[in-house]
Amino acid sequence: MTTISRRLLVSALVLSAALSAGLSPAMAQAPARAAVAVAAEAPPTQRAKNVILFLADAGGVSTLNAASLMAYGEPLQLHIQQWPHLGLSETSAVDQFVSDSANGMSSIMTGVKTRNGVISQSPSAVRGRSDGAPTKTLLEYAEERGLRTGVISSQSIADATPAATYAHANDRGKWGEIFPQAFSPRFGDGVDVMFGVGRQKIGEQLAAVGSSFDALSRAHDRPIYARLEEAPASNGRPVVVADAMDVHAATLRALDLLEGAPEGYFLMVEWDAHTDDVRRGLQNVVDFDKLIEAVQARVDLNDTLLLFTADHSFGVQVDGGRRGEVLLEGYDAWKSAPGDGKLVRLDRVLVNRTHTAEEVPALAVGAGAERVRGYFPNTRLFEVMMAAWGWEADAASGD
Ligand SMILES: [Zn+2]
User: How confident is the model at residue 309 (pLDDT cuts 50, 70, 90)?
Assistant: First the structure.
């Protein structure tokens, strides 16, 4: 029996059993989804050929909870909440409890915690003043070993989270220094598929250092398209820096290009989940979750690891509400007069509009997913992905 037909059969059996027990289809949905996750789990010790890291920027435990309640009126309804392997990943910087995206993502990508604001450099870096040693990223390991690589973001492709996959800098704000590093890689031929936004601001920062998209394109014989639709199908290594990005379409397009890679691939997809605007942030999580479900339906979990996590948490909490009520009561009134306060008090949701220090979820399914368990520092996720491939990190360079 194929995995899909087994999943359908299991779902049908659970659903019919639940219905005959007098449960509504909606109530029967939760156990059916749990059964699907178990059936989809790969056997342990399977080695991954491909790794996909889904990074919900600021997507903490309470954010996932609120997203499920907002979209489905029930907890535990997100697809990723059915995945079999869960750990809690600790995100602090070397000197501060609360992390920004730069330290958070650098820690995940390199296995080395650093300072806030620093992009994949050792903690001896002084932000904006002096470099630390570059810390080798998972993407660089993958490039070195001949895998294809992709980086996709709903945000600027030079902002901290995507930057930490392909660049090294002592300040996340130095986009004119960060972005060109995608074209001058330390290993392999660099990021193969790059889809993100930030066209205007990256362009301005390139100009400030005497460069431009055109100059980079010419120097490296690699067009930098302004829209996803402009990249022709014949371009196997497209770079798109747009004003806006359809992350769902971009990710499926990237899979088209990566999944034939003989040595496998590494793909990082970032989707912003900050809830400064709580409805927008939670909707991003729901949309991201649907994308992840679509990706899971395409890949073979016997040779692919899917890992979902966040770079740091965020202060959103559901502190009221009942089944059948609208979760975000009071949102429209706030939205029409948002103010600039740090605290947003809706009827059932309190938003403290800042990053927070508590651990974030790490959820996994597929080859090597069983290593995600317990509480751990976020640097463990680097080790989990390396171990999934069966790789060892280089000896520390000493810094
Ligand atoms: Zn972040």
Answer: very high
Name the architecture of domain 50-389. 3-Layer(aba) Sandwich (3.40)
**pTM for the whole thing?**
0.89
Domain extents in the chain: 50-389
Out of 101, 120, 154, 156, which one is annotated catalytic? 101
Clarify whether 101 is annotated catalytic. yes
Q: How do residues 95-108 score in pLDDT, each as one tens digit?
A: 999 999 999 999 99
Q: Cα–Cα distances in Å, from 197 out to 151, 152, 201, 245, 349?
A: 12, 9, 9, 6, 30
8 Å CB contact between 303 and 46: yes
- Two structure tokens written together for 217: 């394109």
Compute the mean pLDDT over every residue in the chain, rounded to the nearest whole number: 91
Tokens representing residue 372 in the block: 């995600």
Encoding tokens for residue 218?
Answer: 């010419």
Q: Is 57 annotated as a binding residue?
A: yes
Around ion ligand 1, residues with a beta carbon closer than 5 Å are 57, 101, 311
Residue 36 identity (one-letter amino acid): V
Ligand 1 centroid distance, CA of 105 (Å): 8
pLDDT of residue 28: 39
